[in-house]
Amino acid sequence: MRPRQLLGRAVDLLFPLRCAGCGAFDTPLCARCEAALQPAIGPGRCGFCSAAWEGEGFCPRCFGWRELAGVRAVCEHTGAARALVHRLKYERYRALAPLMANRLAAAAASLPVDGWVAVPLHLRRERERGFNQAELLLRHAGLPPAPARLRRLRHTGSQVRRTAAQRAAALAGAFACEGPPLEGLRIGIIDDVITSGATVRECARALLDHGARETWALSFTRASLDLTRLHASIED
Ligand SMILES: [Zn+2]
Ligand SMILES: [Zn+2]
């Protein structure tokens, strides 16, 4: 860690409440940075997967995503939004969860979902981190939980620097659904960030196998992968 980073970390410890965008004190996200968040819903976004897309109809990223009825996100994975996701997950800054969850809850209100599940972490990862960020967001959002929940069967390792195809292969069959059958229910899947979509698609498959009628995915940020490379530099 360089001296500057070290100093930054020391300041964070002394003054934990600073804006994720500009570093202003006494707020996790100041009004100016909140207004500057790039919404992932509306014009310029794919109507199916919510990635950045200026073309007609759906973008090529989500071609063939039959497991899902759609993917929604609060904002693009950039700037202050990206910093919020990183702080919650890697810096274990749990105080950010209510702020992010409020926005998730507002986005969830427009989706035809009967019950929600969180993308699970492998137990080993959850123990390292001390919590599952998706579960924390779901809890703070106050959304109705589904009668069954997802479990991660395998530790899939870091997904960073894997291509979309490599991610999909690594995640195949990685999730199972536990609890009463979801017969006839429309289930929503919550995650902090959706990147290649491989994780939520695999979760959706497990939910459909367990009887769910339809699945939706909702995340705080949507990373619009470069269409020419479909290569990501962050965890799903
Ligand atoms: Zn700010
Ligand atoms: Zn799309």
Basic shape:
globular
The CATH architecture of the domain at 41-79 and 101-222: 3-Layer(aba) Sandwich
**N-to-C SSE series?**
HHEHHEHHEHEEHE
Heteromolecules bound: zinc ion
Structural class: alpha/beta
Which features does this protein show?
alpha/beta, Rossmann fold, four-stranded parallel sheet, two-stranded antiparallel sheet, binds zinc ion
Protein model, in words:
- The chain has a domain of 161 residues: Rossmann fold.
- It contains eight helices and six strands.
- Helix 4 packs across helix 6.
- It has 236 residues and is α/β, with parallel strands linked by helices.
- Helix content is 33%, strand content 16%.
- Strand 5, helix 8 and strand 6 form a beta-alpha-beta unit.
- Bound molecules: zinc ion (ZN) (2 copies).
What's the structural blueprint in terms of helices and strands?
Elements (H helix, E strand, L loop, with lengths): L2 H12 L16 H5 L34 E7 L2 H12 L6 H12 L6 E4 L4 H7 L3 H9 L7 E4 L11 H8 L3 E4 L7 E9 L3 H12 L4 E9 L14
One zinc ion binds next to α2.
